[in-house]
Write a structure and sequence with these properties.
Aspartate Aminotransferase, domain 1; EC 2.6.1.37; 2-aminoethylphosphonate-pyruvate transaminase activity; 13 helices; pyridoxal phosphate; 370 residues; Aminotrans_V_dom; single chain; aminotransferase; 2 domains; alpha/beta; globular; Aspartate Aminotransferase, domain 2; binds pyridoxal-5'-phosphate; 14 strands
């Protein structure tokens, strides 16, 4: 095998899939049987590690893995947990909140949407007023870190408002879980969703839900899709010691298990969060020195991904992107509807030294000519 052919051509400074370690990639170099006991044990170990990472006790919480990208898991939750009388409230301040509304619309789930605008965090007071005004709302769903901008929503305050009013809370923590500390049980979150290829630093292929057992246990027969039935997926995993309901992404699961071991070796989520925060701080400092400005104030900014304004009206993102790619870095286009921005991710196997090297390259490029 010619190893050079398998070396990465660039560092992914994106919100996922992201740059993984060689250890994670090597974990995929074998074939595995999907129903063999050894393999099922790996699935069970992943599930119990996820529960611990969410600061949950196995008596009250469970972890369910599901094939597909992160969106499939959001769709599985939304189409499994509401019964026919249920009504969903979606709190939206970006593309991923909007995607939940599209899912609800497609599945014909009764829902309302509370829009805050892309540049504002979710306001818990407005959520409280909305819930008080509409007792028919049973579930509330929102995004923790809106990857559209990089904004972090006030998780604790929003959950408090929802739980004080005895509604179920669904959190899309796709881009934050593993990279930011979240006490799922302490906050009393009912369903928290994330995927393999974000801050746990695995590769794409499945997502997972960390769910309150009592809540999930009520969801039998509610699913509006067969393959995305989260309840059935849970029961098969639970009753058959880690068996997946249908063919599982065996290589991806092994890579994810290795990624969890590496997360533990790094010092767990607190250590990873510190590294991401340091990455993000150095990125903004270096980019600012090179003439760029960040979209969000520091107080609203997550350590995951940062949006930057185009530096001028005639700035060519495509040329900037190509120049950086040829120098070993892949960045991300913007996703805002109103403003010209691009994004740079600071998660994955990226370290403060990499950020220093990256901002040196940016400042050496004459970006005004891009
Ligand atoms: C990445 C991401 C998703 C899922 O996207 P997929 O492309 O389906 O993996 C959902 N929500 C947020 C906030 C994300 O960052």
């Amino acid at each position: 095998m010619n190893d050079v052919a398998y070396q990465n051509a660039y560092l992914l400074m994106t919100p996922g899939p992201l740059s993984t370690t060689e250890g994670v990639r090597r974990a995929m170099l074998r074939d595995w049987c999907t129903w063999d006991d050894d393999y099922k044990e790996i699935t069970q170990d992943i599930r119990s590690r996820l529960i611990q990472l969410g600061k949950c006790t196995p008596d009250n919480y469970t972890a369910v893995l599901l094939q597909g990208s992160g969106t499939y898991v959001v769709e599985a939750v939304l189409t499994t947990v509401l019964d026919k009388q249920g009504k969903l409230l979606i709190l939206e301040n970006g593309a991923y909140g909007q995607r939940m509304a599209t899912i609800a619309e497609t599945a014909q789930i009764p829902y309302d949407i509370c829009r805050f605008g892309e540049l504002n965090p979710v306001d818990p007071q407005l959520v409280a007023a909305r819930l008080d005004a509409d007792p028919s709302i049973t579930h509330v769903a929102f995004v923790h870190c809106e990857t559209t901008t990089g904004m972090v929503n006030p998780l604790q305050e929003i959950i408090q408002v929802i739980k004080q009013r005895e509604r179920y809370a669904i959190v899309d923590a796709m881009s934050s879980f593993g990279g930011m500390q979240i006490s799922i049980e302490g906050l009393n979150i009912d369903y928290l969703i994330s995927s393999a290829n974000k801050c746990i630093q695995g590769v794409p292929g499945f997502g997972f839900v960390i769910a309150n057992k009592d809540a999930l246990d009520q969801c039998k027969g509610r699913a509006r899709s067969h393959s995305l039935d989260l309840y059935d997926q849970w029961r098969v995993m639970e009753d058959h010691d880690g068996k997946w309901r249908f063919t599982s992404p065996t290589h991806v699961v092994h890579a994810f298990h290795q990624a969890l071991l590496e997360l533990q070796a790094e010092g767990g989520i607190p250590a990873r969060e510190s590294r991401y925060m340091e990455n993000q701080k150095r990125l903004v400092k270096g980019m600012t020195a090179a003439g760029f400005s960040a979209l969000l104030p520091a107080a609203q900014q997550s350590p995951i991904i940062t949006s930057f304004h185009y530096p001028s009206g005639d700035f060519s993102f495509d040329k900037f992107y190509e120049s950086l790619k040829s120098r070993g870095y892949v960045i991300y286009p913007g996703k805002l509807t109103e403003q010209a921005t691009f994004r740079i991710g600071t998660i994955g196997d990226i370290h403060p030294d990499d950020i220093d090297a990256f901002v040196r390259v940016v400042s050496e490029l004459n970006w005004l000519k891009c």
